[in-house]
Amino acid sequence: MLEWLPNISDFRGELRAATAEQDPAQRLERLARLAQHRLSFLETIQLDRALGSAMATPAPGFASIRLAILASSTVDHLLPGIRIAGLRRRLLIDIHTGNYGQYRQELLDPTSSLHRFKPNVVLFAVAARGTIAALQLGASPEEAEKAVTQSVEDLRALWRKARDTLKAGVIQQTYLNTADPVFGNYDRVVPAAPTRLVARLNDRLAEAATEESVLLLDIARASERDGITAWFDPARWLQAKMEIAPEVAPLYGDLLGRILAAQRGLSKKCLVLDLDNTLWGGVIGDDGIEGIVLGEGSAVGEAHLALQRYAKQLTQRGIILAICSKNDPAIAEAAFKDHPEMFLKRADIAAFVANWNDKAENLKLIAERLNIGIDSLVFVDDNPAERARIRQSLPVVSVPEMPADIAHYVRCLAAAGYFEAISFTAEDRERAGQYAANLEREALLGSAESMDDFLKSLEMTVAYGPFTPVDLARVTQLINKTNQFNPTTRRYTAEDVAGFVQQSSNITLQFRLLDRFGDNGLVSTMILRPDRARPDILEIDSWVMSCRVFGRELENEAMNIAVETARKRGVKAFRADYIPTAKNSLNKDLYPNLGFTPMNEEMPVAGATRWLLNLADYAGRQTQIQRKGV
Amino acid sequence: MTDQEILDLFTATLRDLLMDDAIVLTMATRREDVPGWDSFNYINFIVAVETKLGVKFKVADIEAFENVGAIAAQTKVLLGGSS
Question: Where are the domains of chain A?
């Protein structure tokens, strides 16, 4: 399990050295690096114990999460795996578990320890046993369906309760199919056969979760990969009411860690692929375009093709593809154009880097060219030396340990879960095309006389308006994924966002940028809220912009629009904070550049600044963007 | 494995699990003799030993083990009695 993580030779020694580190921040960094390795069940517990003492002090570059687990079975053995999976993603997870089976009471009682804990995330981890026990094997299809409906509706009510009273995001674990067949192969057609009931419950659970914007921790699917005998051990169930076997705890934690990270915009965004012996078999520089192994007719050729197909599927859900290869660029590009079996086309690749330079430098170049953080990259290379080099020099890049056999590449990459999604929006579907259009824009920029000429020739239009229910998923996604243009880096759930819209004294604005190459989609959002003491002052609570449209003067046009919208409401001024993070230095001078003046207030966060703009003083910014209200 | 090798493996495992290098196990050691070796960490210990040695204890045995010596004896049986 966790086979994509590299092994560690001297775990005990490294752990000892890390815990001996005097400086708490350094200690946490070293523990976080240990968490990047493939650890056993016992090593995970050890690292978790070491983390326990290091977690007390707040650490720069780490985010905190308060997770409550509402479970109908023992989960104590799962907690180290969850915390270490968090540490792997620079998340420090504080966990509350009630007495198992008591979650209903805890949820309903506003004075319970659950409520006092104030979780940001609630995970429901319940078993299907109750539903199964309530039915006779001979129950009719209607009775079986009724029981399933009842279970799901019961859960739905609990989700709502958790959301409304705890103001927490909700994650629901799918039901592990631990039941044994009663009829054998015939189980699947008997409505009340336990194995069939669990499958049905999971189907209905997924429907309800979609309706309620609840995320699923799909251990049912994960257990299909590893087998139910790996996930459920009757001995542990009998001894300690552990529904999930302790041996899979590190994987379970990782599955949950992915969702928690995805909610905070920490999922990876770009897959960087090597060429020789990764995207095709052989070395194109030596073997020539006709000598590489790719395509139908050979198992190896088909395996490389399968990786290309998988990469293409990832682009269709909005993951960006890049190439990083030690090759002659002309020869490498020629393969994309001229090899008849190439499934990936040159237009699928948003950044293509082939040269003889160090790959670490090339990865930095790719991140820069795509305007994404270097920690958004996943680097796939068959060469262990290149992998080790990147892990050493760029530890924030994810570098999966690839299997020796190319046949297993896709499975390994998929299992690693780097690109965990929490939504699938229209923007995701169109992103690949937008990056292809970006290549054309760059070509245009190369030929333009000046920046102004270039912007003019783009023929840009901004469509804008308040948030609408249709945009809610994309607005939430943008708020949670955006790190660079995000002066306050506040993260909000879909419910939070809907709440802002309902408050009529707030102003919400969403911006969609179109140009001659196409629709860039919904690329910027702004949330303005009245100051409690001075309702004629609006605070820019959140303002985010996708990196895809940097350098297009959209921030100027967005501010023009925000000021005009606010003036119509009689607003006198905007107040805005810049709260620095490791990633948003781009916004350091955003507000002074827009004409805001410093308020010189004492700020709770070091380096944070507060700015004021009297709307009467604001002179509209000149831009090359036309407007279209929506 | 010899008795001593098994004992060494048990000791190392329990030291790692409880993060306590002062632990010294003998065949006569009982769970209550070791601070922190509660029922939860007993299961953890069993799982860790099972994983390391590729064996699986019966639930009846896990419930019946009186001391480290009993676990060691059953471990030898599961390993095929070779020493």
Answer: 1-61, 64-263, 270-416, 458-629
Q: What is the mean pLDDT of residues A241-257?
A: 97
3-state secondary structure of A540: strand
| B44 within 8 A of B17, measured Cβ to Cβ | yes
Q: Decide if domain A64-263 falls under CATH 3.40.50.1820.
A: no
The number of residues making up chain B comes to: 83
Q: Indicate yes or no: CB of B43 within 8 angstroms of CB of A42.
A: no
Give residue B20's domain range.
3-78
Q: What is the CATH number of the domain that holds B19?
A: 1.10.1200.10
Confidence band (pLDDT; 50, 70, 90) for A548? confident
- Is the distance from CB of B72 to CB of B3 less than 8 angstroms? yes
Q: In a 3-state reduction of DSSP, which class is residue A398?
A: strand
The candidate with the shortest Cα–Cα distance to A93, out of A77, A81, A110, is: A81
Q: Tell me the per-residue pLDDT of A21-34, one tens digit each, with 9 for 90 and over.
A: 988 889 999 999 99
Is B51–A240 a contact, with Cβ atoms under 8 angstroms apart?
no
Tens of pLDDT, residue by residue over A152-182, are 999 999 999 999 999 999 999 999 999 999 9
DSSP SS3 for A292: coil
Quick one: CATH architecture of A458-629?
3-Layer(aba) Sandwich (3.40)
**Residue A13: Cβ-neighbour burial (10 angstroms; 0-12, 13-18, 19+):** exposed
- Whole-Å CA distances, A96 to A67, A113, A117, A191: 6, 9, 7, 37
Q: Is A16 on the interface with B (CB under 8 A)?
A: no
Phi, psi (degrees; rounded to nearest 5) at B78: -65, -30
Residues of chain B with C-beta less than 8 angstroms from the C-beta of A43: 16
Record the tokens describing residue A6, joined without a space.
């590299």
Chain A residues whose CB is inside 8 A of the B39 CB are 240
Could you give the ipTM of this predicted complex? 0.93
Residue A371 has pLDDT above 70, yes or no: yes
Count of other CB atoms within 10 angstroms of residue A249: 26
Q: Which of B19, B21, B61 to mutate to probe the A interface, most A CBs <10 Å?
A: B19
Which of A46, A239, A246 lies nearest to residue B59, judging by beta carbons? A239
Of all residues in chain A, what percent carry a pLDDT higher than 90?
A: 76
- Show contacts of A362-366: CB within 8 Å, 24+ apart: A362/A324, A363/A272, A363/A324, A363/A390, A363/A394, A363/A397, A364/A394, A366/A270, A366/A272, A366/A322, A366/A324
How distant is the Cα of A26 from the closest Cα of chain B, in angstroms? 21
CB A560 within 8 A of CB A600: no
In this prediction the pTM is 0.82
| DSSP code at position A376 | G
